[in-house]
Amino acid sequence: MTRERLIEFGRATEGAGPATLAIDFSFIRTILLHAAALHGISVSVENVQLARAALKHLDLVGKSNERDRRPTQDELDRLIGYAESHPQQFLPLGRIIRFAVATAMRQAEICRIEWSDVDMSKRTVTIRDRKDPRRKEGNHQVVPLLNSTGYDAWQILLEQRILTRGLGRVFPYHSKSVGAAFRRSCNALDIDDLCFHDLRHEGTSRLFEAGFSIEQVAIVKNCRWAENVTSMAMRLSTVAK
Questions:
Q1: Bridge partners, residue 127, by sequence
Q2: Could you please report the per-residue DSSP string of 91-118?
Q3: Nearest residue to 10 (alpha-carbon basis) of 39, 43, 44, 52
Q4: How far apart are CA 237 and CA 28, in angstroms?
Q5: What are 20's strand-pairing partners?
Q6: CA triplet 88, 93, 99: central angle to 5 degrees?
Q7: What burial letters (b/e) apply to 18-38, b meaning 16+ CB within 10 Å?
Q8: What per-residue confidence (pLDDT) applies to 11?
Q9: Of the four listed, 44, 89, 106, 180, which is most buried by Cβ atoms within 10 Å?
Q10: Interatomic CA distance for residues 164 and 100, integer angstroms
């Protein structure tokens, strides 16, 4: 586990941005500390830190540009109330906003769900081809529909089932139309610097505040902790060979 090999690993990683690679190196460091503390395997983490510094100099490792904007409950109430008081609105934006906070799903994921992806007995939904920095297809993930964020995802789904008769897509609208309607509503209510994706972060924050562990939230939000570790181990093995 030399500095050179770790740098080679970082430079050979395709499809991963600086933030993703930074997370990878944090995982590697954690694994090595775990090996030393619990199994007595002496591997220095200094080489990880040196390799990370070198890759950072090459702009291959860096921080993400994550927003920290959270909507207040008053803003959510106003947005939902505004959407539901305008019958000319062709899409149920208020319901979509509630579902976004309840599930922490991305805008495109919400609009892509088919009723055939919903398990009515287990109260779960399968998100197909979920966004992943390394794999573009086949990232199917089963997500539980919870009632832990102030909004009941399962109940919202049942409301939508009445509207769509359980056929086709659960929310049969283009994701760009949802985004445009959300922006129009924010502008009409003078709500500044709020985008639809902030609802995903709000849902995640509420799950943590409800007492969920990192691993449990990862299942909902698609952090793929276990898969990241397995993927890194395989790539490190390839570099070593």
A1: 141
A2: S-HHHHHHHHHHH---HHHHHH-BGGGE
A3: 52
A4: 13
A5: none
A6: 155
A7: bebbbbbbebbeebbeeeeee
A8: 80
A9: 106
A10: 18
**Could you tell me which of 60, 34, 73 has the C-alpha nearest to residue 229?**
34
Instruction: Detail the DSSP E strand segments found in the chain.
Output: 118-119, 124-127, 141-144
CA distance 199 to 104: 7
Q: Which residue has the tokens 């359980």?
A: 166
231 phi and psi angles, rounded to 5 deg: -60, -45
Q: What are 198's two structure tokens?
A: 């902030």
Asked if 80 and 98 count as a contact pair (C-beta separation under 8 A), the reply is: yes
Domain boundaries, the chain: 3-65+224-240, 73-210
Query: pLDDT of 64-91, one tens digit each?
Result: 556 678 899 999 999 999 999 986 678 9
Dihedral angle at the C-alpha atoms of 133, 139, 143, 148, nearest 10 degrees?
A: 10
Which residues are registered as beta bridge partners of 175? none
Beta strand 124-127 with 118-119 is: antiparallel
- Alpha-carbon distances, residue 160 vs 38, 93, 95, 123, 170 (angstroms): 50, 12, 8, 14, 7
pLDDT in tens, 170-209: 999 999 999 999 999 999 999 999 999 999 989 989 998 9
Closest by alpha carbon to 148, among 105, 220, 71, 206? 206
Q: Give the full edge-to-edge strand order of the sheet including 124-127.
A: 118-119, 124-127, 141-144
Which class does domain 73-210 fall in? mainly alpha
What tokens does 46 get? 């200094």
